[in-house]
Predict the 3D structure of the following.
Amino acid sequence: MTIREAAVLLDAEILQDQFEDVPLGGAYTSDLLSDVMANAKDGGALITIQAHKNTVAVSTLVNIRAIILCNNRPIQDDMLEAAGGENIAVLRTKENQFTVSGKLYPHLNPS
């Protein structure tokens, strides 16, 4: 599943669209950025409510390709600028992390 396909599945807004629409290598759900650094998969998506520039910085360390912001979180302009500079997609959905994770799971972990 590509980033844009995930956006359609989640009915999510694409807030930062300067990215390569590549297949996602999985997803990780966490709001604790040190946990993301330790456990997120290379080339995956981050499902979170952390809508600030530090989220982008952590995402670059583990090669996150898309940040999916949940609960319609407001977003700071500097986060979008940082994500654009790193070619990381930023999506926003009204759904919570549990729902987003459940929707993506069967598409990113085929049995």
